[in-house]
C-alpha cells in the first residue's frame, strides 16, 4: 500500500510577494553598486549565489539593478528638481530607493503609479532613516504628477 503524498508545507509566494522581494534585493544590490562601484554582472551573480532566490522575481531584480544603473543620470535628473538638496548629498539608501521608484514610474508603465510609490515608501520604512519614507513619498509623488500625469488624471475621473 502506498502512502499519500505529503503536502508541501512551504507556501508558494504570490507575484506581489516575489516582486517585493525583488525590490528589496535590488535596493541592496544598488546600494552596493553605488558605494563600491563593483561591476553589475558581479553584483548580480553574487546576489544569486548568496541568497535564496526561489521566492524572488529574479527577472525583475535583474531589470531593476541593471536598469537603474544604466539610466542613473536620467533618473537623477528626473527627481532632482523636487529635492531640497543636491543628489550627491542624499543618504545612499534614500538615493537607491528614489532611483528604484523613479525607474518604475518612468520605465515600468504596467506598474500602477500608486504601487511604485508605495513599494518605495515600504523600502524606506524598512531600510531608511526614521522619517525617510515621508521624504521618499513626497519626491516620488511629485515625479509621478509629471511622468504619470495621464494615469493620475484618469484615476481621479
UniProtKB/TrEMBL annotation:
GO aspect biological process, one term: DNA-templated transcription termination
Pfam families named in the record: NusB
Entry-linked Gene3D superfamilies: NusB-like
Gene name, Swiss-Prot/TrEMBL: nusB
InterPro entries the UniProt entry points to: NusB-like_sf, NusB_fam, NusB_RsmB_TIM44
UniProt protein name: Transcription antitermination protein NusB
HAMAP family named in the record: NusB
GO molecular-function term, one example from the UniProt record: RNA binding
Keyword RNA-binding attributed: yes
Species this protein is from: Marinobacterium nitratireducens
Family the entry assigns: Belongs to the NusB family.
Amino acid at each position: 500500500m502506498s502512502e499519500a503524498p505529503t503536502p508541501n508545507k512551504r507556501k508558494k509566494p504570490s507575484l506581489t510577494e516575489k516582486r517585493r522581494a525583488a525590490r528589496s534585493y535590488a535596493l541592496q544590490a544598488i546600494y552596493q553598486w553605488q558605494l563600491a562601484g563593483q561591476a553589475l554582472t558581479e553584483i548580480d551573480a553574487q546576489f544569486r549565489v548568496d541568497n535564496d532566490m526561489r521566492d524572488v522575481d529574479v527577472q525583475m531584480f535583474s531589470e531593476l539593478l541593471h536598469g537603474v544603473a544604466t539610466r542613473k543620470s536620467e533618473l537623477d535628473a528626473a527627481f532632482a528638481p523636487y529635492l531640497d538638496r543636491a543628489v550627491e548629498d542624499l543618504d545612499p539608501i534614500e538615493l537607491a530607493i528614489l532611483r528604484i521608484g523613479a525607474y518604475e514610474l518612468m520605465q515600468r508603465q504596467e506598474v500602477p503609479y500608486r504601487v511604485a510609490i508605495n513599494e518605495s515608501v515600504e523600502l524606506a520604512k524598512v531600510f531608511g532613516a526614521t522619517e525617510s519614507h515621508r521624504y521618499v513619498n513626497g519626491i516620488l509623488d511629485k515625479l509621478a504628477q509629471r511622468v504619470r500625469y495621464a494615469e493620475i488624471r484618469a484615476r481621479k475621473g
